[in-house]
Design a protein that fits this description.
Residues 29-292 form the Brix domain. This is Peter pan homolog. The protein is an alpha+beta fold and 368 residues long. The chain has helices spanning 8-27, 41-54, 70-80, 118-123, 151-162, 208-214, 227-233, 305-350; strands at 31-35, 84-90, 95-101, 107-116, 140-144, 179-186, 191-203, 250-252, 267-274, 278-287, 295-298. The termini are far apart.
């Protein structure tokens, strides 16, 4: 009888493929999304909705207790390969979102001017398109109007880009793109529009009845005398299913996409359905470190050149004192090592056992 199971080469290739997948997964950005302080029920639900947007490269069951400080979260995030924190908090006046880059910063603080939860967005739709398979891959990030409006705008765009893995347009599989995250910058109001959409690709050039036949759920034709009635008039179909398509969303597919009729080199329409959450953000400040450090940019506080020079001088003085303390600490460590080595030498001479003597055996004979 032949040998059952996989061969040695198959097992080795399988192990190497798993190792490559683990390395590729570890190289992708990961995030923690949580609320801190007395945020309230709605803000905590908003944090869960934002965490849903960041799936699957986020901790879906993360629980941060009141006694856990920010330093504790940073210490836990290091071994897990977490690269970003998204922290929501609430004060008496406003709601804030902090976007942090680990381990050295920077930290972007946004004020949440308006927001809508997933349940609020879905309740306004007649037919929402949201299922678990959409969250097995990260969303496609689309940045709009992030032009030459200043270094702080460029830094915002870079931070949002680093939240998600990069995409190679020549090798990407279109079946993995099921969601879209749109971040639009309005230069007049200096606000960001945060929108989350579901992506659906449908073939074009067919009648409403033919589109109904191509769907997985077969239409009810019990009231029809012949199938031609469905193809000709689209009987039994609601007007809401006839979504308008045009040049703005019709494209030629470079590869086949999941769904009946979405073939390669054929015309298909890309439709977006908002699934929430929805936020309107405004940048407040940019800090150098993780939750602390010097303020690099502030939207409401403008400082003069003298104040900026004073801040720079104070920062250089802090760095100089830090380096001086490190040098002094290194000198103290070296001095203590030398003292311990000298103490061991003195102790060895005091016991009578010099260098090169052999321990054990008979004591030396007394002189005659």
């Amino acid at each position: 009888m032949g040998q059952s199971g996989r061969s040695r080469h198959q097992k080795r290739a399988r192990a190497q493929a798993q190792l490559r997948n683990l390395e590729a997964y570890a190289a992708q950005p990961h995030s923690f999304v949580f609320a801190r302080g007395r945020a309230g029920r709605s803000v905590r639900q908003l944090s869960l909705d934002v965490r849903r947007v960041m799936e699957p490269l986020t901790a879906t069951r993360l629980q941060v207790r009141k006694k856990n400080s920010l330093k504790d979260c940073v210490a836990v995030a290091g071994p897990l390969g977490v690269t970003h924190f998204l922290i929501l908090s609430r004060t008496d006046r406003n709601i804030y979102l902090k976007l942090m880059r680990l381990p050295g910063g920077p930290t972007l603080t946004f004020q949440i001017r308006k927001y809508s939860l997933v349940c609020d967005v879905v309740s306004t739709l007649k037919r929402h398109r949201m299922h678990e398979q959409q969250f097995t891959h990260p969303p496609l990030l689309v940045l709009n109007s992030f032009g030459p409006h200043g270094m702080h705008v460029k830094l915002m765009a870079t931070m949002f880009q680093n939240l998600f893995p990069s995409i190679n347009v020549h090798k990407v599989n279109l079946n993995t793109i099921k969601r879209c995250l749109l971040v639009n910058y309005n230069p007049d109001s200096q606000e960001l529009d945060f929108r989350h959409y579901s992506i659906k690709v449908v073939p074009v050039g067919a009648s409403r009845g033919m589109k109904k036949l191509l769907q997985e759920k077969f239409p009810n034709m019990s009231r029809l005398q012949d199938i031609s009635e469905l193809l000709a008039a689209g009987a039994g179909l609601s007007d809401s299913e006839a979504e308008p398509d045009g040049e703005h969303n019709i494209t030629q597919l470079p590869q086949a996409v999941a769904g009946r009729g979405n073939l390669r080199a054929e015309q298909s329409a890309v439709r977006l359905t908002e699934i929430g959450p929805r936020m309107t953000l405004q940048l407040v400040k940019i800090q150098e470190g993780v939750g602390e450090g010097s303020v690099l940019f502030h939207s409401f506080v403008r400082k003069s050149e003298e104040e900026l020079r004073a801040m720079l001088a104070a920062r250089e003085e802090r760095l100089r004192l830090r380096m001086q303390r490190r040098e002094l600490q290194a000198q103290n460590v070296q001095r203590k090592r030398e003292q311990r080595a000298a103490h061991r030498c003195v102790g060895a001479r005091g016991t009578g056992w010099g260098k090169g003597e052999v321990r054990g055996g008979a004591p030396p004979a007394a002189p005659r």
